[in-house]
Amino acid sequence: MNMNEKILATATSLFETRGIQASGVDTIIAEAGIAKATLYKHFPSKNLLITAYLRDKSNKFYAWLNSRLATKKADSIDILITLCELVEQWISTPEFHGLPFHIAAVEFPDPEHPINQYSSVLAVELQGYLSKIAATAGAKDPEAIGQQLTMLFEGAALVERISPGSGAANRAKNAAITLIKASI
User: Fold this and answer.
1) Which fold has domain 1-44?
2) Domain 55-183 in the same topology as domain 1-44
3) Over pLDDT 90: what percentage of the chain?
4) What one-character-per-residue DSSP string does the chain give?
5) First and final CA of the chain: distance in angstroms?
6) Residue in 150, 184, 152 with CA at minimum distance from that of residue 170
7) Distances (CA, A) of 151 to 71, 135, 148
8) Which of 53, 49, 52, 23 has its CA nearest to residue 38?
9) Residues 6+ positions from 146 with CB-CB distance below 8 Å
10) Digit-coded pLDDT (tens) for 104-162
């Protein structure tokens, strides 16, 4: 593990267990066992570290989804149904701590703050990802389906974070599949 990865892994653990704002630079440095200069050499500001954390979490999520969707026929409803099942599975895992870009947006509520703005970019990216899959699958209005799936999945993620095991992920999956069948 290189130094960037070590710092990011430490920050990720702290952000997910204590919160982003509550995990100060000094705590990250102490937990990583590094000097302050080392942290700032790799991440010149805490905002850049937070942005790297958010990007890393998104990249890992998309890589996980893409690896599981790769075996599905892209131009059929099957890929969307599998997508729904995968999102339910992901949200239902004990390791799920909520959507990082939601948490970041809540912790940095000022719309002018760079972390809030980057969280918005990631939200739009998620909707675009879902719309692209819907378009490939043959949805009549892929942007609408992408937005509807985003709302269902983000809502389920929030409910499951607040009330783990509530069944919200399963209900969102079932609602999403109903929407998908009506749109293809």
Assistant:
1) Arc Repressor Mutant, subunit A (1.10.10)
2) no
3) 92
4) --HHHHHHHHHHHHHHHH-TTTS-HHHHHHHHT--HHHHHHH-SSHHHHHHHHHHHHHHHHHHHHHHHHTTS-TTSHHHHHHHHHHHHHHHHSTT----HHHHHHHHS--TTSHHHHHHHHHHHHHHHHHHHHHHHHT-SSHHHHHHHHHHHHHHHHHHHHHSTTSSHHHHHHHHHHHHHHHH-
5) 45
6) 152
7) 26, 17, 5
8) 49
9) 127, 128, 129, 130, 131, 132, 133, 134
10) 999 999 999 999 999 999 999 999 999 999 999 999 999 999 999 999 999 999 999 99
pLDDT of res. 140: 92
Q: Model pTM? A: 0.93
Residue holding tokens 């937990």? Answer: 31
CATH topology of domain 55-183: Tetracycline Repressor; domain 2 (1.10.357)
Angle between helices 77-92 and 168-183 (to 10 degrees): 170
Residue whose C-alpha is closest to residue 137's, from 67, 64, 69, 73: 73
Residue type, 82: T
The full set of domain ranges for the chain reads 1-44, 55-183
Quickly state the pLDDT bin for 73 (edges 50, 70, 90).
Answer: confident
The residue whose two tokens read 């969280």 is: 119
